[in-house]
Each structure stands twice: as structure tokens, then as C-alpha cells.
Amino acid sequence: MIRVLSVFVIMILPKDFVLADCGVVTREQWDGLSPTRVEYLPRPVGLVIIMHTVSSPCNTDQTCAAQVRNLQTYFLDQLNYWDLGPSFLIGGNGKVYEGPGWLHVGAHTYGYNRKSIGISFIGNFNNDKPTPEALAAAKALIKCGMTKGHLKRDYKVVGARQLIATESPGRKLYQEIRNWPDWTDNLDGIKNN
């Protein structure tokens, strides 16, 4: 009888490798604070909500990281939230910044946080158009999230204004996402009553 010796190799991956899923700038990389509490998001989710921060735009790594830190301070200190509201933030530099991420419930769209991923573009897009780099980053993030199993294969993209009373994601950004193949105007089964 031949004995087969099996060897199992256990790899321990650095924390940044695991968190850098989909090329996201991690909380550690943008010098963010840890959340005060977390709630796990049941995945995969079928809804991606696009919004904007209604803040100054950013186009460099330094200014975008500073904007994300400022936004986190606002959410923690002024709004008394556990963390940043949006799951991810996207700068005009074409980089995606980690908020609660794929795994944790965010606080971005009242009534929809426990069943969606919120992606917020940094800036005010009522009059300004998002950069091509920011749009490409959002599309790549969503595609990666679907490929990695964070999003359902038949996920839908909507603007926050379709679900709650807000101007977000701003007229110019809303016009852009309405041309994405995964955007929907059919809110049956999505919109809360």
C-alpha cells in the first residue's frame, strides 16, 4: 500500500493585501481612523448607489487623502456615525478610497444601507463633470466587486436621488451613470415603500 503524504501550506497574507481588494486605497494608506463599531453587510448585494460628497474636489493623491480624512472627521465628530458613510469614495485622481468597504454596513442612503454598496465621488457634480479617471475607477471597482462575489451578477446601479430626497449624485454625475449598462430606472423591488 502506498501512503500519500499531503502537505498543506497555509499562507498568511499581509493585512493590506487582503484589504486592498480591487485596488482600493486602504484606510491605513490614507491614514484613517478605525470605526468605532462595525456591522457586517450580508453579501452579495444587488444594489450600488452612486452619490457625491458635495465638498471640494480633489485631483492629487495628497489632496484626496486629506479630503477623505476630513470627511471621516465630519461623519465621526459632527454626525456621530461609526465611520465614514459611503462604502467607498472616489477622487478625481482616479483612486478609490476605503470607507466601510465591501464587508461592513455603511451609512450613506437612509433605508438602504443594509442592502447596498454606496460609492461617493469626492466633489460637487451639480455643475462640474467627474474626471474620466474617476468614472473609470468607479466602473472598475464595480466590475471587481461583482467578480469577487461582493455584488450579485445581476446588480443594479442607481443614483441616490432615485431613492431618497436629495440632489445627489449631482446633475452631471447622474447624467453619466444613466448611460452605464447596469444603471436602472426600474425601481420595482428596489425602492422601499
Protein architecture, described:
With 193 residues, the protein is α/β, with parallel strands linked by helices. It has four helices and five strands. It has helices at 15-19, 61-78, 132-147, 171-177; strands at 45-52, 88-90, 96-98, 117-121, 151-159. Strands 3-2-4-1-5 form a five-stranded mixed sheet, with helices on both faces. Strand 2 and strand 3 (96-98) form a beta hairpin. 39% of the residues are buried.
Q: What features would you highlight for this structure?
A:
about 25% helix, about 190 residues, alpha/beta, 5 strands, globular
**Number of strand elements:** 5
The end-to-end span amounts to 67 Å
As laid out across the biggest beta sheet, the strand order is: 3-2-4-1-5
Give me the CATH architecture, please. Answer: 3-Layer(aba) Sandwich
In the CATH scheme, what's the topology name? Lysozyme-like
Instruction: Provide the residue-averaged pLDDT.
Output: 90
Q: Can you tell me the number of structural domains?
A: 1
Shape: globular
CATH superfamily: Peptidoglycan recognition protein-like
Helix content: 10-25%
User: Quick one: biggest sheet?
Assistant: 5 strands, mixed
Secondary-structure element order, N to C: HEHEEEHEH
Name of the CATH first level = Alpha Beta
The count of helical stretches stands at 4
Strand portion, in percent?
5-15%
Low-confidence stretches: 1-20
- Based on helices, strands and strand pairing, what is the structural class? alpha/beta
Radius of gyration: 18 Å
